[in-house]
Amino acid sequence: MRFVKGHGTENDFVILPDPDGALDLTPEAVARLCDRRAGIGADGVLRVVRTKAMDLDAGDAGDVGGAQGLDGAEWFMDYRNADGSVAEMCGNGTRVFARYLVDAGLAAPGEWDIATRAGLKRVTLGASGDVSVDMGAPVALGPGEASLAGAVFRGERVSMGNPHLACRIDRPVAALDLTRAPDFDPAVFPEGVNVEFYRLLADRHLEMRVFERGSGETRSCGTGTVAAAVAAAGAAGPGEWTVDVPGGRLTVVLDGRTSHLRGPAVLVAEGETRPGWI
Ligand SMILES: N[C@@H](CCC[C@H](N)C(=O)O)C(=O)O
């Protein structure tokens, strides 16, 4: 199995080129690939498959999202979390996926769509440098809460295609212990939830940490970054936000209609798994 390793602000991925959809990618195989001691190590897997090789009507696009209109994009991002679960969307993954396509000569620098389980996402990138993605309209769903070691954190529920709870705190995010998963009410979050903790550092400038559904604490989360900016913006309206995460810095633009995420996307290695290992 050929792979490429990449990351976006240290949210890292094993990229599996599978243009014809020939791989039988089981949850167990994904978990082995993402294992940081016994595998390659990553927060998730990005399978790179031609949209026309996906049996969209048979649910190949996932039980988690609609397939309508996806054939408008040549490439489908089949995203999996480190525990093997399927997610609707991954913002950093989309940016790294785009960088891979350009680097591999499968797409030209410019502006084009990637198909995801959360619909088409338009990326903009040059031959090198930052990658920007139109993340679509965030959906603010009202208040929610989670708890961490018995302490309750209140926040805003936001859908970015995948579920988020963005909680504002007033002390440095570095002080949080995220070694254990936040608890939440499964009746409120039946599909689970990604939980962000953010602090306002200055006008339109946040720091954030995240505990991701299916992956644990990661050093960045693109959809989570947008969710935190949406929660912080409240009624403040359109604007550009800077979000510092443990793995670097991302820029979020909210314009009242859609949201954009911009930042680095880097490919660091490529190789092949040993025969019979996976
Ligand atoms: N890190 C991603 C989000 C990945 C999916 C998430 N863990 C979920 O299950 O919804 C990002 O950059 O958005």
TrEMBL record:
Catalytic activity: (2S,6S)-2,6-diaminopimelate = meso-2,6-diaminopimelate
Binding site for substrate: N11, N81, G91, N92, N162, N194, E212, R213, G222, T223
Gene Ontology CC entries for this record: cytosol
Keyword Amino-acid biosynthesis carried by entry: yes
Entry's localization field: Cytoplasm
Biological or metabolic pathway of the protein: Amino-acid biosynthesis; L-lysine biosynthesis via DAP pathway; DL-2,6-diaminopimelate from LL-2,6-diaminopimelate: step 1/1
Enzymatic class: isomerase
GO molecular function, one term: diaminopimelate epimerase activity
Protein name: Diaminopimelate epimerase
Originating organism: Actinomadura physcomitrii
Name of the coding gene: dapF
